[in-house]
Design brief:
3 domains; SH3 type barrels; 55% strand; 9-stranded antiparallel sheet; mainly beta; 25 strands
Length: 364
Amino acid sequence: MKNGIVFLLLLGLTPFSLASSYYATDKRVVKIDRHCPEGHVSCDHISAQSYDKETGEVIQLSGKTEHRLCKDGITPCRFRGYSFEGKGVKLSIHDDDHIYVSSGEDQWSKERWEYLDNAPESLFEPAFYSHCLEGEYSYLNARMKWQKKVEGKFLLTPTNKLLSICSDRINAPFSRISYRFGPREKVELEIAATVTKEILTNTKHSPDGTKNTFEFLIGDYTYEVAEVIGQYETLQQGIYIDVQTKGQHVATFYSGDQTGLDYQSNLLNIDFSLKKIPLYSVTDLTGKGGVEGFSWGGILRSEPSRDARKKGFLNERQPVVILGITSEQWAGYPWFKIRAKGVEGYTWGGILCSSDYRGKTYCN
């Protein structure tokens, strides 16, 4: 048995240590903590935290040691590693220098591990990565799992997908609210409600407030995003995405029910009524043929915001046609919808001049 212990120490598999053990692969870092008295060869009370390097997700696992039995078929003889389960994931650390991971249907991936003397504790804090950009406010971040029904039971398969709902400011009125979905640092699907573009097709609220839903269309696909608080009928607490096309169900994603670990949400602070998304109105002046004016220079943008995409540049004293005035204000002047050299966009009133809008444009 003594030779076996030396072999384990060389591998970094140390079943007797009360200190945390760390194993790293290209995809994850695993922290292991034993909760058995020192000197116990086998232990059925071991916790692990698995940090996903791609998504930043931390999964809590529980498990035990694995041993090859001695000749009597009872006594644990050679230590083989650890096995863990939790959140629909199975993870095994073997003495063949590999970690084996299964997220359902008994399909295992194989990752070569290396033993670490230590790892930053910040890795294992349940912090959230977000698709929201610098300067945006995060109203929702949820780690989404694929949910499917098999033999009357719902099974969850972890994905690397994160749902974020982001706004251009912390409180209404907003000029932009964005829905972003995809892996860390790779948005696969994005749609935004802006001052000129509504995206919502429906909103629903259960009478007791336990389920709040909004829907939007992308092509032929309807996306329903719902937050359940407590429990609603058969639905557990958490965030749901239901995707349908032409009345046919395509997929359902679910975050899990643990706030702060599976999701972070402030959606209840948003009024998703159709009358308020978008929340800035544009007074249309095209019925008058537009209003003439000129620019002092600056940038033509896709939306009435300094952070919006650039559509072009305006020259000093360049003639423009003012098509609309928005309710968006900045530094004492509203934003205007204009046409310049055949291109429509938005510019700030502080760099416009129009005799029809003295006081709302800068003409001094």
